[in-house]
Write a structure and sequence with these properties.
The chain is an alpha+beta fold. Helix content is 35%, strand content 22%. Strands 1, 2, 3, 4, 5, 6, 14, 15 and 16 form a nine-stranded mixed β-sheet that branches. Strands 7, 9, 10, 12 and 13 form a five-stranded antiparallel β-sheet that branches. A hairpin with a 5-residue loop joins strand 1 and strand 2. Helix 9 crosses helix 11. The longest helix is centred in the C-terminal third of the chain and has 24 residues. The two termini are 29 Å apart. The structure holds glyoxylic acid (GLV) and manganese (II) ion (MN) (2 copies). One manganese (II) ion binds next to loops.
Length: 420
Amino acid sequence: MTLPARSPADLGALAQSLLDDLALATDEPGRVTRTYLSPAHARSIDLVGDWMRARGLATRLDAVATLHGRREADGPAGRSVLIGSHIDTVVDAGKLDGCFGVVAGILAVEEIARRGLALPFAVEILAFGDEEGVRFPSPLSSSSAATGTYRREWLAARDRDGVTLDEALRGFGCDPDAIAAAAIAPEGVIGYLEVHIEQGPRLEHWGLPLGVVTSIAGQTRMGMTIEGMAGHAGTVPMDLRRDAFTGLAEIALTVERIGRQGTGDLVATIGKVAVRPGAGNTVPGRVEASLDVRASADAPRLVALDRIRHEAERIAARRGLKIAFERHVDVPTCPMDERLQEAFSRAVASLGGDLRRLPSGAGHDAMAMARRFPSAMLFVRSKAGISHNPLEWSDPLDLGLAVEALVRTLLDLAATEGRV
Ligand code: GLV
Ligand code: MN
Ligand code: MN
């Protein structure tokens, strides 16, 4: 049975209602926080799995808790198009980051069926669980598993309660020994498509609802540990202190200065700090901090990292502190596939209006997927460019236009694939 096509306004309203429901799966009532392998992550898998099954997709959970929903090809079994994004969130997140890409994929597949359209390839929707790297320092680990580039040393990392990633996976019912089998064979894949909110201000500035991503900024994420000497806040004189926190404070200002001086959209952030032992009347003896450095090209990022390291070691030595760095993630700048950019671009152009392309400053599962599959991204305008913040918002009409563009991109690929 063929049903009338839903309008972008209707698709957007539907997307928004699904996103509102998904936001209720949270580890912190009152705000959206859904970290990898948490109870809220389990609830979100149940919910998204129900949405997939209700639309005829066959679901399965892989060894790293990525939820797959598959629609087989119409006609002989052929290759597949992967569509994905993530359903984990940062702490106190908005409702859209990651989740919209999964919702967009589900609604696009539903729309294809409603309109009675046929695809010569399977479509597999992937809801990744560990893009943000909030609970464990391994962002993109689930998409890395899909590409066979999972690093087994990640399994030994501990969350703030001392639980290792290996233990958390087993507790979730996953089998870390089967991670290699979660890799998807590249021969069978036409490409990977990810729809995501822009999380920046450019599309809004241009007055455009959608844009096609050219490349994703490279990123390095590290841990820094600074060791000083804990002591009594009332008795240790100022000039005899080895205060790990004030050492970090000086390093943080240096990181900011180096970030400001850099070229190529360089940004450098310390977003997470733990002060030990963490008592108001004790001089901090140890500080653990994160460091996140990104740029639109690799050279400015690598130069900045060298400078930060050198300056931090100099500051630590002057203050009688020890500093150690641990590199968790190092992903180079990632160009998106030209052919898939063109397919997205034709779909956006067919909706009318201007077409612009833009780079992504945020990291995405597409960076990991691009290691093995042709990959491309479509961005949706974000209000005021705000993200990683509960104020994150996109106009539902823009969301609906993105779903429609994804439908048209699949049809565009179907036309090409039909000729192969
Ligand atoms: C993900 O949101 C990232 O860019 O870190
Ligand atoms: Mn994010
Ligand atoms: Mn995201």
